[in-house]
Amino acid sequence: MAASEGRTGGLMLGDPVPWFSAATIAGGRVDLHVDAGRWIVLAFLGRLERPRAAQELAELLAEAPLFDPERLVVYVVLTAPPGAEQIAALASISGPALAFIADYDGVVTQCYGASATGRTVVLDPMLRAVADISWEDPGRHAAMVRGLLRGLPDIDASAGVPLGAPALIVPRVFDFPLCDFLAALHEREGGVDSGFLLDRNGRTETVIDHRLKRRQDLVIVDPELREIMRDRIVRRLLPAVERYLQFNATRMDRAMVSCYDAATRGHFSRHRDNINAGAEHRRFAVSLSLNKDYDGGELVFPEFGRRSYRPPSGGAIVFSCGALHEVTPVTRGRRYVFVPFLYGEEDAARRLENNARLAAGEAPYLGDRDRLYPDPAPS
Can you give the pTM of this predicted structure? Predict the structure, then answer.
């Protein structure tokens, strides 16, 4: 599938590529790590006033029927601002499957070895370079890109064999009466609108955007109930985490019951749980189901295909906080779930240090309520 073998243009085919975050000319933003789980085309055109760049763009846009936000996303990287009329024209054709990146300082272009000559780089769903096609052969570049794009397989067939996400499902962690009690507690008390962490100007802050996340959270404050939940996690979940994931968790972030409601199409779009300064301490995410009478609300790990995961009521699914994942919209009923994070002592120390990187108004970490063991954890 690759257009060339070995190292070309600063990239070694088959290797993971550098992540980047960049603005688009339409006023949006591209965060490459969130786009995993799709074929991604990076077309490094440089300056559009050059006839060659305009020609290559026209050849690429001729394949627009192939562009699909669930399968094939195209990012055109520009190193100089187009004219005002051209910016308006490009913004008008931009969308979920096509965007024009304003790389006016050339950082992304240089990182991908495209400063000297234009090129097209194609990434697989795990963000690894599978093609690096240079402009050095003017007569063949567009034809090679066209043939490659038309031959790309579906996402679930991208590896040649079906893929399963590196996630551990552990049944029977919470007893059914405890699940019912927690779900009823949320239904009676209600929850607050749930945000997500975002880094802005070097500081981590909580942001609410219903386009990306819609969930209601209830923090459990009763000490006796928190102790019951902690006890079940320690006795029934941690042994499996240590055995199968080779991680000795000593702390747990958040004693919280969450609700994804079909009435508001509760969901959580693609994200990773440890990207921000306020979340770097997180090692493993836990999603423990408290009920089963709902439709939708399933976990998907896009880097490993579109297969969905749903642990049984009372059971948990555990996965790395570095894994890209999403919660699909709930279409019927309400999904109640316990959603803590697991980490260790070194991670807790990092979390304390990162208090300095929290935005004003964010609650600092004190390190006094998240221990999984009353006494120092066994070595």
Answer: 0.91
